[in-house]
Write a structure and sequence with these properties.
This protein is mainly beta and 233 residues long. It is 0% helix and 39% strand. It has one domain: Neuraminidase, CATH 2.120.10.90. The protein starts with a strand and ends with a strand.
């Protein structure tokens, strides 16, 4: 779900799929939906939509893979396409890997990554050098059998909280400020102690504004929003 205020030509919906395909489509292309829905992106049977975000044509984008790699590029590297287009390659991955998340860089924060077995870390976004789409990426997390694959990547600041959800149905809330910022190539620290057989299934960010009010993610909230543009995963 992407929050929007109006369907104009100055904003874009940026898509990323599990197989590492990315696509940018003008927001105005979605201004005339039908009851049965409209095509947002063409996806082959062996792929699935992973993330979608609202951009203005100038943002840096970071996408991360389950293998612990991340690519940072400017969205100007991706030409805008029609709704039925399939997109272009965003990151090169091994066949057994998948995309786990996308960050539209809106704030001067840090990048948090987490793995399936409960490990994670925060690193300065400046450690992720700007490259071009389609690269293999740089190390975001050293994944091992002990840490498990990377399952989440997101931009955070000290005032944010995290909601960590496990495969057994437990939810734990944790302050981002309690996670120290360390180097990009390190293995990270334990975010949560899991029981045997349990795994992290997802992580959501809770953003606090200047008044201390909480706003849940997704991250794609932009200015004065009054409408919702929805899509199926």
């Amino acid at each position: 779900m992407v929050n929007v205020s109006k369907f104009d030509d100055e904003h874009f919906v940026f898509f990323a799929t599990r197989r590492g395909t990315i696509k940018k489509t003008p927001l105005s292309a979605f201004s005339h939906p039908s009851r049965r829905g409209i095509i947002a992106i063409s996806i082959p049977e062996d792929d699935a939509l992973c993330a979608a975000g609202l951009t203005d044509g100038s943002y840096d984008i970071i996408i991360g893979s389950s293998g612990g790699k991340a690519v940072r590029f400017n969205e100007r590297d991706v030409r805008h396409m029609g709704r039925s287009a399939a997109g272009v390659i965003g990151i090169k991955m091994e066949k057994d890997q998948r995309l786990v998340g996308m960050v539209v860089m809106r704030r001067e924060g840090t990048l948090l990554v987490a793995t399936e077995c409960g490990y994670g870390k925060r690193s300065s976004i400046n450690e992720y050098r700007l490259t071009r789409r389609g690269a293999h990426g740089v190390i975001a997390m050293r994944t091992t059998e002990r840490t498990g694959p990377m399952v989440a990547i997101m931009e955070v600041v000290d005032s944010d909280d995290l909601l960590i959800m496990t495969s057994s149905g437990k939810v734990i809330r944790q302050q981002v400020s309690a996670i120290r910022t360390i180097g990009r190539v390190t293995q990270g620290v334990r975010l949560i102690r899991l029981r045997e057989g349990d795994k992290i299934s997802d992580i959501a960010r809770v953003v606090r504004d200047e008044n201390g009010d909480e706003t849940p993610t997704p991250e794609d909230m932009d200015g004065d929003q009054s409408e919702l543009f929805g899509y199926g995963k």
